[in-house]
Amino acid sequence: MESFEFQRYVTIGQHMPTGSPIHHLDPRTRIVGVLLLMLAVTFAPGLSGLVVALVGALILTGVARVPINYALKGLLAPLPFILFLVALQVLLGPTMLPSRQVEEAALAVLWHWGPFTVSTFSIVSGLKILLRFPALILIITLFSASTSTAETVHGLTSLLRPLQKLKLPVQDFVLMIQVALRFLPLLAREAERIAKSQASRGAEWGTGRSGLLRRARQALPILIPLFLVSLQRAENLAVAMEARGYRSFSARTSLVQLHFRPKDAVALSGCLILAAVMILL
Amino acid sequence: MNPIISVRDVTYAYPAAGHHAGTSEREALLNVSLEIHEGESVAVVGANGSGKSTLARHLNALLLPSRGQVRVAGRDTREVIHHPEIRRTVGMVFQRPDDQVVASVVEHDVAFGPENLGWPRERIRAQVRAALEAVGLWEERLRPPHMLSAGQMQRLAVAGVLAMRPSCIVFDEATAMLDPAGRRAVRELMRDLHQQGLTTISITHLMDEALEADRVIVLHRGEVAFDGTPATVFRRSEELRALGLDVPTSARVAAALRARIPGLPEHLITVEDLVAALETLPRSAEPATRRMDSPAELDIASPHPAAGSPLIEVTDLGHTYMRDTPFARRAIRDVTLTVDEGLAHGLIGPTGSGKSTLLQHLNGLLRPQEGAVRISSFDLTDPACDVRAVRRMAGLVFQMPEMQIFEQYVGDEIAYGPRLAGLEGETLRERVRWAMTLVGLDFEGFKDRLTFALSGGEKRKVALASTLALQPNILLLDEPTAGLDPGARHELLAHLQQLRAPEEGITIVLSSHQMEDIAALCRDVTVMSQGTTVASDGVSAIFGDADRLEAWGLAAPAAAEIATELNARGWSLSQDIIDEHQLVAALTERLAE
What we know:
Chain A is mostly helical.
C-alpha cells in the first residue's frame, strides 16, 4: 500500500551519494555540463540527435550509478502529460506550421478526419517530443542525484560571482534556490502527512475510490494547510537565518574552496562534444 | 557589572491585523523593563500568547520595539549598523529543529553564521571545529543534517550559534520537540555553557526545566508578572495557576505534603530542598513490603475502567518506507502490541523508534507489509478489508494537528468528517455539538469563531473534536500535548480521561515524550526502541525501572525520580510510584506516626 508515499514520485531534488566518478567532479563542472546538455536537448532539430541525447542520458545515469529503473520512475508522473502533447502533435501538428511547410507536410498525409490530420511529418514531430522530454527529465534527475544542495549552492555562487560586480543580488538568488531545493522533499513529506490526516477524518485517499470531481474536492483540504505550513516554515527559516546574521549584500566568505581539476576539463569537453553532436546531427 | 541586555519600557504590537492572528488587537509586549547581566542563567515562562517569543526576538534585533529601547552590550537595536554585532553577541536556538538548518552538510551549516560575518576561511574552520566539538557532533560533521536525530539537530543549532563566539544564547523552547534523551542532552549542554560563563536565556513551558535557572521571569499578556529567583517565584503557586502556569513537580508534592504534615517547612521548591527537609522529619519504620495494586487505587479522580477483550492485536509487524527504491528505509520490525478494549494504552520511545509508523497501521493508513494487524473484527492483511470502515472506527490525531485545520469557521472544520460520512441538517449539528462538548468547547460560543484566531490550546481542541466527530471507538493520539502550555495541557488530559470513562468507552492509544501524560492516563505502556517493541507492561512496572528507562533513552516521570532520589537515601518507598498522588500518599504514610 504505497498510496501515501508522495516522495516516491519526486525523483527530482533527491540527492543520492553513490560516490561515482560524476559525484567527484567539481560542482561547477556539473552545473555547466547539465546546462549545456539541456540546451542541446531542447534545441536539437533532428530525430537522430534526440536518439543520441536519450542514449547519452541513459549511459550517464549508469555512470553515476543511479539505478535506471528508479530514474525512469521519475517519468511516470509527467507521462500522461507527455502523451497528451504527443497526441496533440500527431493529430494537429501540421496546422501549427508556417504555410510553406504545411504544403510539404500535406503531401505525406496518411489519414484525415475532420480537424485531425496525420502525416509522416506529424508522426516524426510526435516522436521528437517522446524522446525530448524523457531525455530532459533524465538529465535533471541525474544532476540532482549527483549534486547535493550544498554543492549546487557553492557552485552557483562561484559561477555567478562576476555578476555581483554589477550589483545584482547573486547571494539572494542562490539562497532562494538553496531553500527551494531543501523544501521540495520537505513539502512532499508535509503533503503526505496532511493527506493522511485528512484521510483519518474520512477523506477518500488511498481507498481506490476517486472520481475526478472527488479528487478536486479532496485537494482543497490538503492545499490550504500545505500552503499555510510552507509559508510558516519559510518564515521560520528566514527568521533563523536572520538571527545568524544573514543579510543581502554583506561581504560573505565561504568555508568551502572549489577545485577545477583536469578531469573536470575532460568531462566538460565530453559534454560539449555530446551537445554539438545532438545539435548537428 | 554592566548588563549585557537591557530592555527599557518596551512595547510592541505586531503590524497589520490578521498578519499574526490573535495578537493584533492588543500589544504583544507592554512596558517591559528588565536587565540581564553577564553570566546569568534566566528562564522566561508564560502561557501561550504571553509574549515570550516576542520578547526573545527583541533580544537580538529580530524585532524592534514599537516604543522603548533594547540595548545589547550597550548598542541600541534600532541602529541597523549594529545588527551584525548584536546578532553575533546574542545567538538564538529555535523550537523546530528542521526549520533552522540552512545547509545540507553539518559543517557547512555551522559555518553559515561565521560566513555571514565575513570571517576568513581559516578562522571559520577553527571555530566550526571548536563549536562541533563543544556539542559533541565533530564525528558527524560530514553527514547531512536530516540524518541526525532531533536531539542532535538541536545541538547542531547550538553549534551554529557557538561558532559565532556569542556571549549570550537564547533558547526559544528549544527542548519542546525533543524526546527525553534529547531534552536531557540539550539541558546538560545549556548547563555546561552557563558554567563556562555564557549568559543563557531559556524560554520554556516546562517548570521543572525553569527550576534549573538562577532567575525566573514570568510573562503574562505581554507584561512581566514576576521576576526573581526560582524560590521566590515558585512559591506563588496559586497566582501562577491563575496565569495558566504551574509550579515544578517537587513544589507541588511539597505543598500537598505540607497540608497533611504540618511539620514540613513552607515553600520547598527544588527536589534537593524537599529531600533535605524530609530527611529531618521522623519517619516510621519501614512498612511491610506491599505492592500498590495499580495507580488507580490512589488516583481517585480517574479510575481505570474494567478492561475488555483485546480490541487491537498487532503481531510481528514490519514496515519499510519507500520500499523498492534506493531510499528504502526500514521503520519497524517484529512489532507486537495488544490493546484491551476500553483502556488507555501508552506508547513511549525515542524519536525515530517507530511510534508514528505503528500508530498509522492502527487505522489502516499503512497496510502491513510483514506480519498482521487486527482491529476489532477487521483483518488489515486481507486485501478486501474495508479500510474506510477501519478509519471510521479508529480516529488518528497527528502531532500538532492544528497545522491541518483548513476551514474558516470552527463549526465547518468539525463538521467536515461527518459531512463526508453523509450526515446533514440537525443530525450533523447535533454531532458537532456532541464532539465540541467532549473537548470542552462551548458549541454556541465557538461554532462561528474563526479558526485562525484561536489560541494554540483551542486549536488543538478543535482538531481533536474534528476527529471525535466521527464517533470512533478507538482514538489514536500522536504526541497530543506537545507544545501546549501547562494550563492547556492539564485541561486536555482531563478531557482525555473523560473519553476513557465507561460512559464514552473510547479506547485510547497515545504516544508521548511526556512521561507524566502517560502516567496520568494509561494503565499499560509499550516501549519502542530502534523500530521494535522492547517491553510491554503496566505503567508502574515500566516507570519503576529507572536504569532500563535510561538505557532506552527515556526518563521516569518527575514524581518517580523524586522517589528514586529518596530511596537512594534509604527511604525504601515502593518501586511502583509513578505520579504525585502516589508519592504524597506513600510519604504521608511513612511520616505519620
